[in-house]
Amino acid sequence: MEMLEEIQKLKDEATSALANLKSSEDAENFRLQYLSRKGAIAQLFEKLKDVPKENKPAVGKSLNELRSFVESEFESSKNNLGGKAVTSDGNIDLSIPGRKRYAGRKHPLTQTANEIKRIFTNIGFGIADGPEIEDDYHNFEALNFPPDHPARDMQDTFFVKSEEGKYVLRTHTSGVQIRVMENNKPPVRVIMPGRVYRNEAISARSYCLFHQVEGLYVDKNVSLAELKGTIAYFAKEFFNEEAKLRFRPSYFPFTEPSAEVDVNCFVCGGKGCKICKYSGWLEIMGCGMVDPNVFKAVKYDENEVSGYAFGMGIERLALLRYGIDDIRLFFENDLRFLNQF
Amino acid sequence: MKISRKWLQQLVDLSGVKDDDIASRLTMLGLEVESYENFAAKYEGFVVGAVLEVAKHPNADKLKLCQVDVGGETKSIVCGAPNVAAGQKVPVGLVGATVPHNQHDPEGKPFQLTMAKIRGVESEGMICSANELGLGDDRSGIMVFDDAAVQGTPLSDYLGLNDTVFEISLTPNRADCLSHLGVARELASAFSKKFIPRRVKITEDGPSITESAKVEVTAQDLCPRYSARLIRGVKVAPSPKWLKDALESVGIRSINNVVDATNFVMMELGQPLHAFDLKRITGHKLIVRRPKEDETKFTTLDGKERIISPDMVMICDKEKIVAIGGVMGGINSEISDNTTEVLVESANFTASSVRRTSKALGLSTEASYRFERGVDPNLTIRALDRVGEIIAETSGGKLAPGIIDIAAMKFLPKRVELHVDHVNRLLGTRLATGEIIRVLESIEIPCDKKSETVLFCSVPTFRGDIERDVDLIEEVGRVYGYEQIADSFQTRLNFDTRFRESTVLDELRDLLAGAGFHEIITNSLQPADIAGFHDPASVTLANPISEDMAAMRTTLLPGALQTISVNLAHGQKDVKLFEIGRVYRVMDDQQVVGRFRESARISMAISGTADPMSFDRKESKFDIFDLKTDIERLLAFLKLDSWDFISYDTTKEYEQSLKLFVNGMELGLAGRVGKAALQRMSVDQDVYFAELDLTSLLALRKSTNRYRSLPKFPFASIDLSFIVSDQTPAANLMDTLRAAAGDMFRDISVFDIYSGEGIPDGKKSIAFSMALGSEERTLNDGDIAGFIEKAEKELNQKFSAELRKQKS
How far is A126 from chain B (nearest CA, A)? Predict the structure, then answer.
């Protein structure tokens, strides 16, 4: 059965030759060598006439199998080289990169806000919204900032020119808390993202506006411990599992008790560096238990419900998360910046 | 606020407590320590030196070689300062010392002194400037001390800086901590340390105060307490070193022994004081009252004339105003070198009144800062005794017997009831009654048990911020320690549909980002002229940061142009941008807030090359149709059925201008931005910009269509080409074709527009590709022919259009 061995040998040769096809030229050479009218396979068919009669059917079958095998393998190898290139124009540089197209991105502040929203909506928070031009009542008074109180100095305020009444560009999203509670009975559990304004000189560290996410949960028996647990969950989701928090007593007129929340500096691991001003901690938000005077303002029964509120700056969180050192970059919209997120 | 450790240690025993622990405990008690500086450590290795000899440096003209006695040892030091001279007493840094501020480093980083050869000559130290020591801005030459300075004295001792100074950022509620006494109280609680008992030593002499001075308070609502003491035979002089050092350590400039004593007591106890020269008080009587009608001006200590108003509180004598109560004294009764009789005011003014006055005058002082936050009304006498002690000691004066004290009432501790279960419910703790009592008593709030679970707490008058049970609960939490409260995270889930946010905005962002647009977020404050140019009803600010940001935006256009300008500046010419943001205007009708309407807009801006950097295709610039593509994509995404673009003549913003109408409402503008607007933002290439009313579009949006079964029969596709006047809008032809097709209409697009050879002048050939179909059957040749006939007839009637050719 020399013929069958020869067939097998040719099959092996052709297979390895096919594996080495690199160009359309190679392919054409292969075709000439194996598949052309005077090619190796045709030559084997020539030899079929010398095969003993009783073996002819088997050898013929193998030969046919060989031919169809090589033909189909050749076709698919040829396609892998770049299809029509081989058959027709023959010479195209496939190393040319694809055509450039515009590739858009969502703004890093949008991305950060979306992440914050995702985390809180996952644990049952809704989302609410409110006006940026706000009356004194919602921005200050209902939040327990009495007129002529020094707490009003904590936020430098823009006032709107108006003949009727006192209006401000909201200094925080906390006014939305009031609007939500005025219009909805407890329990309420919402976050309130939005743009706020501060009349501060523009620098790498502060801009005349920024974005906040306010949070509010009012229900029976809401406690400071629950607030701590919720914020700890947020920090682990937003930063990482290892995020450690520090709750530091502070003061906001609309919460009592109040706290500032610091996260351990992930740049230096808490050892102290320039970013954390050598304290090992980075301030991320203010929070506290809703002050009874706020409940009075929205006609909630302070003996029935308690609640917590928190507020964080989206820019601040994005700065920390991405290691950005200048807040103005967010509002310049330099594409070299936007493309990084 | 600066707090000195040395000063604290006069009040409370802090032995064995590290600076670092003080800082971290204060921070965790809510008195945030922003930084602290240990001057003894900072100036280790610095001493006072006496310059014995100054010679020229052998190898450098500008340098000198000095021999400096640093206390029993003479060092050879190279110095480049122009003012160095033999006989001076100067600050010397020895080898190993760290110079706090490097004058030659742009960031001023500290550096350590080593034995160094300067131009070939060894220098065994460094004579420093005030700037290098971090003691001032002067860098022109070395610091030169008083001749009395003794060489070898450690610099921190000489400067009175062997101390640690804490910079504390206080929240407005903690007025009680605006003094060393207040901070000492917190520390005594934090470290379980005892106050150092100290008795004020005063001797009274001569006739009683009431024989020399009188006080009358008529505005008792603004001044609930007014106390005063008299010191006779005072000799005004510079303060002794301890007093100067103490004040300077907390950042207060020394003036003279009398004024310094009042400031010292304010920093120590928190009571603002004011010293009057009694001889300059006409009639030797002070009257606390509101100004009279004709009293409208008053010159304060700083020499500035102030406009006063009738609701302020004034300290007056028989003829004139001598001080603005709680804010600042007047130049007409201030302590001078000739003053011998000093009347010290120790008063309590109503917080809100002082705040209004200070705001109205634009004048904030250490005194007004404290009064507007609330000062303990029971501090007046203690402060007078303390200041009397110091003035007597430093000026040789004698205290007149007695104190004038006019009080509206007795100021007693507030009684606040506290329920233990309320504490635990709000904090989420399980504190025992005894534990709560221990915590509150550690900050001087005594508690009586009314029952096992109800306490009566006596809040001392220095804690004006504590009025209610929640205020006490905060104190319990704060002092017990927030970090001691275990986190809980078992929020009950209640599913609430009231606060659902639609996801459509984010879907739009995804759509546009996918279409190659970058999202931008721009300032919503603009120059008033730009905001007003686009909409005269713009909202303007009463107190803008600058003219550039004096109004709220009325359109997103300037933000987009600004962004393009920023990107052009660094060579980025090809941009696709979008922004979702609010615009603001004044409306005539009532809105949610006042007459202000805020509505959401979406803008798109494209500029530059439509297909950037393609190796084989012709580069083409963006045009209005690229912009329409994306607007239409957006409208289709919102599943709006139909819309119209109406073209307008050049408007003030746009050339090639279009208005978008949906359901008959004008909901947007699009076009090529006009040259004037481009020039204003220094943009020198075409910008195509669209701005749509997002609020309205979202209201019109159809969120889910009903499913329609898929077509059972194939569509017929036909191409039709007409010759019409080149003035005929394509949209009109398309509307007619659509109407002619009726129920069979499926789709239409323009695939060719041609004029020139073969087409008569003033005409164009326009070709449409249409898809027609039926719900019932496959359309046959007859259906198609019927349609073409109808279309041809109608187009001919309406537009004199001529059918050129057809293909199907």
Answer: 5
Segment B591-620, tens digit of pLDDT:
888 889 999 999 999 999 988 767 777 888
Tell me how far the alpha carbon of residue B404 is from its chain's centroid.
Answer: 44
Answer yes or no: is the ipTM higher than 0.95.
Answer: no
- CB–CB of B566 and A331 under 8 A? no
- What are B448-497's pLDDT values in tens digits? 999 999 999 999 999 999 999 999 999 999 999 999 999 998 767 777 78
Cα distances (Å, whole numbers) of residue B102 to A274, B128, B129: 19, 10, 10
Chain B positions in Cβ-Cβ contact with residue A219 (cut-off 8 Å):
492, 494
CATH 3.30.930.10 in chain B, residues? 504-700
CA B577, CA A110: separation in Å to the nearest integer? 14
Q: What is the DSSP letter of B341?
A: -
Query: What residues pair up with B2 in beta bridges, in sequence order?
Result: B167
Residues 36 to 65 of A: which have CB under 8 A from any B CB?
A: none
**Interchain pair A102, B612: CB under 8 A:** yes
Distances (CA, A) of A6 to A9, A53, A260, B96, B316: 5, 18, 85, 90, 127
Q: Do A334 and B566 touch (CB under 8 A)?
A: yes
Q: Does the global pTM surpass 0.95? A: no
Domain with CATH 2.40.50.140 in chain B: 44-158
Cα B379 to Cα B214: distance, rounded to the nearest angstrom: 21
Question: Would strands B214-217 and B285-289 be described as parallel, antiparallel, or unpaired?
Answer: parallel
Distances B700 to B88, B232, B505, B509, B638 between C-alpha atoms, Å: 85, 84, 14, 18, 8
CATH class of B44-158: mainly beta
B716-807 to CATH, choices 3.30.70.380, 3.40.190.80, 3.30.450.40, 3.60.110.10 = 3.30.70.380
* Residue A94 near chain B (CB below 8 Å): no
Ranges under pLDDT 50 in chain B: 808
- The mean of the pLDDT values for chain A is 89
> Are A161 and B575 an interchain contact pair (Cβ–Cβ within 8 Å)?
no
User: In chain A, where does DSSP find H-type helix?
Assistant: 2-19, 24-30, 40-47, 56-80, 84-87, 108-122, 136-139, 174-183, 224-238, 292-297, 314-322, 329-332, 335-338
CATH 3.30.56.10 at B418-484, yes or no: yes
**Amino acid type, B295:** E
Shortest Cα distance from B281 to chain A (angstroms)? 32
- Measure the CA–CA gap between A195 and B295, rounded to whole angstroms: 46
DSSP, res B724: E
* Cβ-based contacts of A166 with chain B (< 8 Å): none
* C-alpha to C-alpha distance for A287 and B494, rounded to whole angstroms: 22
Which of A118, A331, A336, A339 to probe by mutation at the B interface, max B CB count within 10 Å? A331
For A210, which residue in chain B has the nearest alpha carbon? B523
Give me the residue from B500, B549, B616 closest to A208, CB to CB.
Answer: B549
CATH number of the structural domain B504-700: 3.30.930.10
Whether residue A180 lies within 8 A of chain B, CB to CB, comes out as yes
Q: Is the domain B209-407 a CATH 3.50.40.10 member?
A: yes
Judging contacts by C-beta atoms under 8 Å, the chain A residues touching residue B486 are 225
